[in-house]
Amino acid sequence: MIGPVSTGELAAALRTWRDRTDPADVGMAVNAPRRAPGLRREELALLAGISIDYVVRLEQGRTRTPSAQVCAALARALRLSDHEQAHLFRLAGHAPDRGRISRRVPAGVRRIVEALHDHPVAVLDATWTLISWNPLYAALMGDPSGLTDRGRNALWKQFTEGHTNARVQHSAQERGVLVRSMVADLRGSTSRYPDDADLATLIRDLYAASEEFAALWDSGVVAGHHQSRKTVVHPEVGDVVVDCDTLTTAEDDLRLLVFTPAPGSDARGRLDLLATVGTQAMTTAST
Questions:
Q1: Which intervals hold domain HTH cro/C1-type (predicted)?
Q2: Is the pTM of this model over 0.85?
């Protein structure tokens, strides 16, 4: 990673993009005339899942290197084009490098996530770290916005004691298939991204923390990841049985997880109810 080109350039670009963003286009209520066009800082912070203070520091040039995950969240909130998002990543010091894993979420992927609003959808990078999601995913699986990068990593949750998502239940067979598939997919990433330090660190830490991971890693299997079935035990709507299909994008090598109601279950009705409950909870929390 190289340092940012200029904190002043980054700050100016963020202010410009915020000023041009129509609040109505990103789902923000406009109940009274505004003194200035565009989003307020607190609205951008809410949409991106970061603190207002951090937005202020970014726009004042007092923060040099926002993480790739923060850049992706800002790009989503500001609806940046692919070229604009690439510019943001370069200004923040995340220059494109084919030897490193991309954390960029292209505009086309963001449109797909938004269009599938009645299904829980998440976007993960090639280390299986969650970098973007829609509201229904957060309502079903729990809001991940407050988690660290390691806390958002699906492999770390599966293999590290105390980090497993208590809402998700698998049979022993389902979990065995799932973790073998994920580890095999991760091994494939090592040849595509031999210079990615975060990937190497994750593998080293998992190997040290989990004998199960170490045994699977030592097997040397390379494969892709496909469908799995999950039972999500939700505290408000009960058990939701979903199938999870993993789609991989070509350019950025992202994993797009799409949850659909399992055939023969009542998951569709529970997801519809959850969408309503989740929206109400989000509205209450933001006022």
A1: 34-85
A2: no
Give the list of residues 6+ apart from residue 147 with CB closer than 8 angstroms, or none: none
Rounded to whole angstroms, how far apart are CA atoms 36 and 272?
37
Could you state, in chain order, the average pLDDT of each consecutive group of 10 residues for the chain (287 residues)?
61 91 79 75 90 93 82 90 86 74 89 93 95 92 87 92 64 85 91 90 96 92 76 92 91 93 95 80 32
Q: How far apart are the first and last CA of the chain?
A: 39
Task: Decide: 277 and 284 in contact? Cβ < 8 Å.
Answer: no
Cα separation, 145 vs 155, whole angstroms: 18
The architecture that CATH gives domain 7-91 is Orthogonal Bundle (1.10)
**Cβ distance 127 to 153 under 8 Å?**
yes
If DSSP codes are grouped into helix, strand and coil, which group holds residue 235?
Answer: coil
Task: Identify whether the C-beta of residue 10 lies closer than 8 Å to the C-beta of residue 92.
Answer: yes
Domain ranges for the chain, please list them: 7-91, 107-286
Our CA dihedral for 277, 108, 51, 286, rounded to 10 degrees, sits at -20
